[in-house]
Amino acid sequence: MSQSRTLPFRQIHLDFHTSPAILDVGADFDPKEFARAMKDAHVNSVNVFAKCHHGHLYYDTARAERHPGMTKGLDLLRGQVEALHEEGIKAPIYISVQCDEYAANNHPEWIARQPDGRPVGAGPFSPGWQILDMASEYQDYLADQVAEILEKFSPMDGAWFDMCWTQPSSSHVRKAKMLKAGMNPESAEERDLFALQVVRGYMDRYYKMVQEASPGALTFFNGRPFHLYPEEIHWFEQVEIESLPTGGWGYMYFPTNVRALRKLGKPYLGMTGKFHGHWGDFNGLKPYAALEYETAQMVAHGAQCCVGDQLPPRGRPDRATYELIGQAYQRIEEREPWLEGAEPVVQIGVVPSAPTDGSRLSPVNTGLTRMLTQLKHQFDFVTDTNDLGKYELVLLPDNIAVTPELAEQLEAFVAGGGRLLATGTSGLSEDLSRSVLPSLGVEPEGWSPYTATYVRFGEAIGQGVPPCDHVVYDKGVRVRGASGSDVLGTVVEPYFERTWEHFCSHLQTPPSRESDYAAAVRRGNVGYIPYPVFSSFHKHANVPLRLLVGKVLDLLLPEPLLRVKAPTSTEATVTRQGDRSIVHLLQYCPERRGDGIDLVEDIVPIFDVPVSLRRESAPQSVYTAPDRTPVEFRYENGYVTMRVPKVEGHAMVVVE
Prior knowledge:
Structural class: alpha/beta
Shape: globular
CATH topology of the domain at 348-556: Rossmann fold
Strand order of the largest sheet: 11-10-12-13-20-19-18-15-16
């Protein structure tokens, strides 16, 4: 069984950041009612709070940080843990790290400082979190709290440490420690390096404390940049992708990041929220259709599910919230026989474009995820280029700097029969004067002098494309096809570059003449497109770019893993359980319903969807899950071909 199946499938992250000004904390808490609400909502794991961002504790303790409004004698955390365990529900324990208002107010010398001396986080008159310096004595203070929690609650199901990003600081203690380590506090680069050492130091410290007291407890540090996970994964027993689509993450965050993080060999899950907006959106309830989509998307990518909620201060779960979550989680529970141990099946390995901030998405990766999803291709983001051989095609999107080591790996991959597609400056020298990958079959001549040019599709890729020259809004590279290469399309250049001295009409200059430069080139199993097609698609959603990439991929991958004739809004993924394949079809359409808010409110079904799945042998049966309704199929030319009668939001087609 895959390691990714050691986590419960239906989790709740139960925030409880409760102000000390609220004096009836836990007044309505009934442990049996609390646990029963979770059980009735088909929940099988709940992250419950030992310590919140306000810095207060919610268990029986003599420490001064116990929440001042919690009823005398109430051990809220123990009541939650024991009641959940009685219902067979896991109860990992949450601990806030860099946010602690109690500690910040009582020890201002522990607050992290910006280079100009101002505090990091909320100012003195702002309602918000002050950020602690983990190089100060606060780290020991927190260690004492962790030690007490472990003493009282071990063996624990898990420890969930929050707010663990890499935080530089220019506090007095940080400067002194940097000097002692031989580092320069005036250097921003060295402050960042020391901050990384600090966060890895306390992760190591707290991880060892947890594992010594509760061996095997699922330990997680939230807030770490995803691009650092490969170096830090030994401190994690699980990987979580926090992504509240309406809270600022958007609907592309999870499906982009999961394609890299699921390859780290750890259990992984997606985390959304029940909130209409961000965390702490009290009584803001999202539509059911949105929560169904988000949880269906998680399992379609092989992940478990977690839904964020915030328990009201008096300790009684909100009824409407758990009716909403229960409806979504009942769907997941019914489908778990086809989810347990199911691993994603992919055909394309994408070398990712690295974002400057690991917590944000690269426009290249986002545009690529959106485009390949619309084209129904199955792909991963490659975390280890030594592992290219598992893919049929490797894709270098837009701006990948190919090192000599990577060039050697790619050329060996192609020589062994692998397929390759590069776009933009990927595979070219830094000055764009030559290709560092001879297999690309192009002769580059630097940047085009024109911001916008036009693509004329050639005969080999022009079928079904509107017969005109199609605009590309972003600058490409001038390339010619080398000897032995096929030019699939040509660049049509404008009359002139648009400037204040000469311009035409409202936007780009119209096309003038077909140039000698290629818009797409193919040599054997290798393709090249000289435009930043994926970042441009992210910005403009320009359909001809998808047509261009799709047509080139059709030549390079004439036998795709999956063919689906459905709207571009339909998402399709493939997972495998042993000899059983499962095709997930998702038809939900997020709409821009507010300023920066994309929402799913309605589920509109589609019918009679043609699907073809590549498979080595004929299956014995095809049916939809969980109802096990048979689906007629035929097997020919290596494909199982069927028509899915109905996709109402999420359909699962099982081929076995």
